[in-house]
Amino acid sequence: MTDDPSPAEGSNPDPRTDAAEDLTHTTDEGDVQMVDVGDKPDSERRAVAIGEIHLRPATIEAIRADEVGKGDVLATARIGAIQAVKHTWETVPMCHQIPITNVDTEFDLGEDRIELAVAVETTGKTGCEMEALEGVTTGLNVVWDMVKAVEKDDDGQYPDTGIENVRVRDKEKRRK
């Protein structure tokens, strides 16, 4: 190990470096607090999160044909995703309530999976990544809930069903 604290070219710096200065959710006494963004300028912000749910091919075909007994799976999941975006501040501790200016959802049906992308836009003092992530996870949970009767095996388990690869794909910030 070298004494040089700078990261090697092309590597990611250790996020714990200068951690005491970066712990803005913690006071000097160690108490949790909401980050004060009051002095930050408003910016146009956009975040896109994606994730996928793996399902049986027969379930995907039932969704395509709108033959799932509970109703239109993707329409219901879209509503759930949008509602989750709007209520993120209520479920993620210390998350600011932000003005959501737009939410777009896009479903991509594969042979044995559905990918969901949720794009969130806001104009404000803090980003909207958490809102996009909440939209994706809730939207995919709604899909699972809508199809769970056909996804269960004879033992009531879900051997082919799984939500994976949830992540922020894009993040943008533009000063007003």
UniProtKB/TrEMBL annotation:
Residues 34-173 form the Molybdopterin cofactor biosynthesis C (MoaC) domain. One of its GO terms (molecular function) is cyclic pyranopterin monophosphate synthase activity. One of its GO terms (biological process) is Mo-molybdopterin cofactor biosynthetic process. Residues 1-40, 154-176 are annotated as: Disordered. It catalyses: (8S)-3',8-cyclo-7,8-dihydroguanosine 5'-triphosphate = cyclic pyranopterin phosphate + diphosphate. Substrate binds at M94, C95, H96, M130, E131. Residues 15-28, 166-176 have a biased composition (Basic and acidic residues). It is an enzyme of class 4 (lyase). Its EC number is 4.6.1.17. HAMAP family: MoaC_A. This is Probable cyclic pyranopterin monophosphate synthase. It comes from Natrarchaeobius chitinivorans. The gene is moaC.
